[in-house]
Amino acid sequence: MKQLVADTESKLGAVDIAVSNAAIEGPFGPMWINDNDAWKRCLLTNVMGPFNFAQAVLPGMVERKHGRLINVGSGGGLWAVPYDTGYSTTKAALIRLTEGIAIEAEEHNVYAWVIHPGVVHTGMSDTVLNSEDGRKWLPAYEQALERGQTPIEWAAQLTNFLASGAADGLTGCFLSVNDDYRALAAQAQEIKDGDMRTLRLKLVPTQRPPRAFQR
Known about the structure:
Elements: H1 2-12, E1 17-20, H2 36-64, E2 67-72, H3 85-105, E3 110-116, H4 123-129, H5 132-137, H6 139-147, H7 152-163, E4 174-176, H8 181-186, H9 188-193
Parallel strand pairs: 1-2, 2-3, 3-4
């Protein structure tokens, strides 16, 4: 990754905006029967991948006192996804990693977010739809796609909005394409003061969220 960033900067100039989008699904089914190597590959790709990418781009951003990093996460990182623990665990970790990056880098005018792109049909979706284990353990995934896929343009629009600098006050936050993120940017101080839009331990009873893919 460091060599890729060095090659890019030698040809195109400094990297000011970086988007970490690569991810894979983990093994499906009860976690106690999951293949260890497949689970580890999901962890390495979905957590160590963005970590390595961040380590490659952040030093230059910090030195130049300018930069924005956008990690593509998932709503699956906000709650447990039965029979897909590898993927949901890694996306939860990505939310926390992004928050940590944002806190450490903000004094250098470098900002970071993690976004939920919606239910987008990608090659990763086909891993679920076209595998025996995916169809067996995650049948609701196909139903979610049938109910309505999220236009990929929505993720691009949110990414462009964050890259523009209009939401620097929301650094460290989890944002979804389904949010009114322009309104949220205008409420950035309130959100920051309220310690909102990131992972926290529930300390009081609240309504239980729907099962995965019901949103």
